[in-house]
Fold each of these.
Amino acid sequence: MGAAAEAVSTRPRRRPLTWRRARRGSVPYLLIFPVIAVMAAILAYPLYQLVRLAFQRYGLPELISHKGVYVGFANFTSVLHDGIFWHTLLRTVAFTVANVGLTIVLGTLMALLLVRVSKWVRILITIGLVLVWSMPPVVAVQVWNWMTNVQNGVLNYILTTLHFGNFDQHNWFASPFSQLAVVTTLVVWGALPFVAITVYAALSQVPHELVEAAQIDGARAWQVFKDVTLPVIQPVLLILTSLSILWDFGVFTQAYLLIGQPQILPSNYLMSVYLWEEAYFKNDYGRGAAISILMLASVALLSLMYVRRMLRIGEVDR
Amino acid sequence: MRYRVIAAVIAALALGVVVATTASAGTKATHTLVVWLQVDAQTGWPSVVANANTAFENANPGWTVDVQYQSWGTHLQNFDATIAGNDVPDVIEMGNTEMTKYMAAGAFANITASKSQFQNSSHWLAGLTKSSMFNGKLYGVPYYAGSRLVTYRTDQFKKAGIRKPPRSLAQFESDLTKVKAKEKGIKHYSPFYMGGTDWYSALSFVYDYGGSIAVLKHGKWVGQLESKRSIAGLTAYMKFFHSYAPKSAATLNEANPAPYTVFSQNRTGAIFGPGWFSCCTGTKYAKVTGQFVMPSHIAGKSMPGFLGGSDLAVPKQGTQQAQAREWIADFTNTANEKALQAKGDIPNATNLLNNSVNDRAAKASWFVPTAKYWVNVENGNILRVMLAQILTGKYSVKQAAQNADSNIEYTLNQP
């Protein structure tokens, strides 16, 4: 960087700026321009509007007159003084930790399994994973709904038949914990394929001779994994973890549809559901905007650690 | 090469413009009236919609009616989006509990001056008219109402020796006890079924005992669920539910599973809900499906049922309001309202009522408080939480009612 800066600062004196050179110099900017324009249109402008909205009183009357009323930080103070916000934030953090943890651990285990099995089994498992991946969340919710149905659900039937206890007419949506646990199974199930396939790809980068050397030195399977495999796939795991945090913190479709509006309550809110209820059901768009900005800040804090470690790994690699 | 490409693009654009202009010049200029109805009309009475459209289109040459069907769960969000985008429908069907918030916000056109344009408007059902008025002005036209009935298995009741519909709640309870004893052999059977948190049906007990949800006192809404009479109603509901409905249904709602599904699976002898529940009791049991009005705890009277219903409103931002009113007048004329009545709905005016079980049920009814923020109480599931707390025994009736009252007061008295 230093050398390049020097070159730029000394050159213009020796060579006057010609039309042709200016044109050549602008090529990179021209090439990046479409991307910047698209990003500005689909991200920066809505984001600007969102921030503006967060400082306005904007309800149904304002929606009709197309004009909000500036109220300073009133939306933020009202959200931050709302006990529901803090409870929801804590619940969402716990939900995210559980979901990300389960997704990464199960995904890695599945990837390790993929390495071990024969080619045909691997192909079958991969097809299964891709099928899971390709199922839209709304459809998956319907399937889950059927399986957990109080009266005719196959889950209650199987658990009872296998003598796990009496699950006859068991209502899986009776308590907030149970509701979010069912949502967790759906979210983790849907996220597994991406993690398993990506980690499987990363595992192929683990040098075979290192594994063999460790085994010859008497390392056990767990030690080989911990000291040889893990360091190699760590960058991939970090990326997967931070992506999963982003996704799981913002889960909406699965939670909202599976629990169902008549049972959506402050005691089972996740952040995005809380945001939806405040902004769209109560038509308080200003407050909704404030919540989404606070949500953005919390998820940024949550993933900060991972991004920093990722950057550090990047520096070492260079 | 590059110039050739540019030339080609310009030529294509020019061609497009020419085609577009000739197309619009070739056909006669038409106007479209956009109407949002709920899917109930599409599945239940498409012929009534077609009648209104034909009448309107014949009277207004060059106009077409575009009916867009909506679902209850999402139509308000869709409507909000069209308000934001200045692209509102010309006519919108609103649930009667949804009206107040939008009238208060100024979303609908004031149609007080045009009231006489609508047939039977001097005899409109009081419950529906109330939901269409705000500050003494009219913002909606009553469309139809639906009452709540008990839908039951006539064969099972006969088998238990019951020949007549019950005249009191106590008699209904003793009937259900008899049915229960006779049908012991059926797995997962309960003589009565409803989702425990179905507040539309459950709160009928509250109104039957003279209670209510909330009342306006000195400009402030005051919760009434902890009042003596409401508590008596809630307690009666709890006892009734515990005696005859399945325990697993305590935290369930009326949507999942639908009570008529439970009925069609031969798992219950009676369900309580909208009159149209008789539609879907299963082909196997269609011939042994009967209905009666839910009896009151006072012998000889009916329990007041929730008067659900719909109104038709003209969004204020609409630019074709005169035509919108005309279409509504066509859609709610006497002939069409009679057709709705034939489908099991309650027509919008008292002079059209007859002695059917539906219409009799409509005579004793209750309605939610007409407060600006009422819909937030509904969507916030405050009443459902209270009912679940009572039925699962998490709180006493009084405690649960007190919690609900404070939540309701907080929600309704927002500035």
Note: Strands of chain A lie at 56-57, 69-70.
Amino acid sequence: MKRVLATATAVSLVCSAGLLPEAYAHHAFAAEFSRDLPIEVTGTVTKVEWMNPHARFYVEATGEDGETVVWDFELTSPNVLMRRGWKRDSLKPGDRVIVSGWRARNAPHVGNAGKVMLEDGRELFTGTVTD
Amino acid sequence: MTPAAHAKGAALLIAAALAGSPVSAQWDPYPTGNVPRTETGEVDLDAPAPRMPDGTPDLSGIWQRASGDQDAGGDGDPPLATFWDLGANFEDGLPMRDWARELRDQRIADGMKDNPDAHCLPIGYMQFHLHPQPRKIIQTPDVVVILYEANYGVRQIFTDGRPLPGEDALPWWYGYSVGRWEGDTLVVESTGFTDGGWLDVQGSPLTDEAKIVERFRRLDTGRMQIDVTIDDPKAYTEPFTVRVVHELMPDTELIEFICLENEKSTRHFD
């Protein structure tokens, strides 16, 4: 775990230094999401789709009324994530996560993941560009 | 810091960042051929550009858009284009006709949701030139092929002496490109575009009347400069020229990108 943490830290440093290209993959952020709809979701990863044009992961969480909801979180594309140090099992079903990001304008449980914090403290930087 | 030095520094930092990760790359790095190397095996990005057996510069390699501190150019040099806005460094923006400006503004107001890229369709030369994802140039004496990781695009530039097709040619998403060498510069002329194109993410229009001239110059092993003149009288009041700068990405490969593999975003567009 120490090795993974060190890698995540190093990748974050590279990203923050602006040395990696932006995470634009396929469409402009504004086509689907709104910066005016920030979200933070705590839950359990149920599925990961490591596919193009966007990697996606699904999080089961408790909704405002106590009901169970499943969030569909969009990441950038796998090629961009790989160059940022991700691997296809950086997130796995069963992982407890806190996801910060932005909600889709017209879908209540679809989001763009800006930052993913795992229960063990690892932080996965997504590099989302909000236009 | 020169762009080449910056690229070298970035490559080292990225390599250092990824060194601790056992499976962070698609596959193990494999050395790029036809590039000069230092005694320690690193690609010498500041060395003169490699050449083909016939003496022309060899543009082959994997290239990425230059990072932030690229040469801004001197007086008289074309303004640098950006991925989002080709006219970002023009004092008054691109010289659009009124209808073209209104269309571009509407495309922005719509969140740029109709950019062909968002629908897994080809995105045109300028978005390809400026896309943050890399591209691979394969040069032969008769044709230069560019493979784009973004949207897995492919383009051919014929350098075998053939002319551009006549006006009856069917319009293509990528148009039709022929190139010739003027000294160390590859000059590429392209026509025959489909109408309704997007020059940048914000949707600066490109029409079927456009003629594009690109001038590719490999400044040294690590840097490529592409000056692009767009002459599209239907959408613009005069031709304009922008500059793109690329940096070599040695010892890596393109990664597959099949856009329709799992496209689920467009159903959430307004």
Note: Chain A has one domain: 2-125.
